[in-house]
Amino acid sequence: MKTKVLLMLFAFLGQIFTSAAQISVEKEVDYAQEKGKASNQLNIYYPADTVAKKGVVIFIHGGSWSSGKKETYWWLGRNLARKGLVAVLLNYGLAPDQEYPQMAADCAAAVTWVAKNIARYGGNPERLFLMGHSAGGHLAELINADHQYLKAAGYQGKIKGMILNDAFGLDMNEYLSKADHDDNYYNFLRTFTENPEIWTKASPLNYVQQIKNPHLIFYGEKTYPAIQIQSERIQKQLTAEQVPSSIYVIKGKKHVGMISQMIFGSNQLYQKILDFVAKN
Question: pTM for the whole thing?
């Protein structure tokens, strides 16, 4: 509840500092066959000038796999569009109604829809970048690293790059094996079951050898230890696999602050993202 209140407050403040000028928005776009289902819809923020095909950032929100929605992050979409990118914010099914494989399948279906349709919004379907915060970082990396999801969704392209913002759950087996059995622990079991074999299967770090695309990784200096440890680990493993990656520790930031800071268009993360997209 505290996290929701903070994000709502930051979003309200962001309205003061974010201009809608020269930005177009398409909302509640169905990306799955079933129409009108909120969990399978996305919003698109794009520069009004659609002449040149632009890089596309597909953002997957966090919320412990059991909460969150795309509307909360409207300011992220507008800020990215104001800086010359096309931004796609998506919803996906949440626990307890869905477990992680269906969530990943939803996200993969959204990527496939974007690849087929984003050109009419000024986006380049051959320059798709996945970005996720917290649980969204886990889902983004999972569908990137474990190829079964995008393949099943019919996606035949290549994700140009990954942007992980304080990604949680890169190794769910490690976390659930060592975590205290508190409310969060039992909440996560709704998504990942009580089976350690499934925890291993759900962990993107177990598929690093299948990753070929560049990575931009952020985590907060004051975030959860598991995020710090696993963010560093994936970067080291990517380096060992000769996959280009950069990692930045953002001073003074806790977990929620790692995404809420981006309400302000002048935030340092935007320039790093723009540079990353430009060179990849």
Answer: 0.93
Beta strand 123-134 with 161-167 is parallel
- Structure confidence at residue 153 (pLDDT): 98
Amino acid identity, position 249: V
pLDDT score recorded for residue 7 = 57
Parallel, antiparallel or unpaired: strands 215-220 and 245-250: parallel
Q: Is the separation of the CB atoms in 43 and 73 below 8 Å?
A: no
What is the spatial order of strands in the sheet that 86-90 belongs to?
23-30, 41-47, 86-90, 54-60, 123-134, 161-167, 215-220, 245-250
Q: Encoding tokens for residue 175?
A: 């976390």
Give the pair of three-digit tokens for residue 64: 């412990």
Give the residue among 134, 143, 141, 136 at the shortest CA–CA distance from 108.
Answer: 143
β-bridge partners, 23? 47
| 70-to-41, 89, 220 alpha-carbon distances in Å | 9, 5, 22
Which amino acid appears at position 15 of this protein?
Q
Residue 44, both tokens: 């698109």
Per-residue pLDDT tens digits for 122-142? 999 999 999 999 999 999 999
